[in-house]
Amino acid sequence: MRPCRSVELFALTTACGAAALACGFVDVFRPAGPESVIIVYVGDTILHRDSTVPFSLVVDARGTPLDRTRLTMWSSDTSVFDLTAGRDSLAAKSRVATATLMIRLESSIRTYRAPTLAQSIKVRP
Fold first, then answer.
1. Which of 19, 23, 57, 68 sits 20 to 30 Å CA-CA off 75?
2. Residue of 97, 101, 98, 99 whose CA lies nearest to 118
3. First-to-last CA distance in the chain?
4. Cα–Cα distance for residue pair 60/40, rounded to 1 Å
5. What is the reported pTM?
6. Nearest Cα to Cα of residue 39 among 113, 122, 123
7. Domain interval for residue 66
8. In this predicted model, what pLDDT tens digit does every residue of 12-51 receive, in sequence order?
9. Does 103 share its domain with 54?
10. Do residues 20 and 5 both lie within one domain?
């Protein structure tokens, strides 16, 4: 084999390998299994009595935000606060106390267990 031909072959192999890595070819050989999914609560954690406060949630899988995720949310004590009908706001009741907002990702094929977030919410006068 001529020296020039082996240099060309090496350059071609290197270029093809770089192109495969750039196109995400590595993901094909990554082992199947659960991905880490993170749920982040964005909103006030201290509410004033008899008020309604909007909040939002960010669901993230390996640094990529997930849109239109199915979430189940509930209050550990509905006498302290509850979710509004649109499930986008917290309605504080007249009782001054602390309760937990529970959030769970439903029908997740990304993890072994459904990711859950427990966010403490306080209601003050």
1. 68
2. 101
3. 86
4. 8
5. 0.66
6. 113
7. 33-124
8. 777 776 666 666 655 555 555 556 788 999 999 999 999 9
9. yes
10. yes
pLDDT tens by residue, 101-118: 999 988 656 555 677 899
Domain total of the chain:
2
Name the DSSP letter for residue 121: E
Co-location of 119 and 62 in the same domain:
yes
Q: Which residues contact 85 (CB under 8 A, 6 or more apart)?
A: none
DSSP annotation of 42 reads E
3-state secondary structure of 100: strand
21 and 67 in a single domain? The answer is no
Q: Could you please report the per-residue DSSP string of 47-85?
A: EETT-EEE-EEEEEETTEEPPS--EEEEES-TTTEEE-T
Q: Same structural domain for residues 18 and 74?
A: no
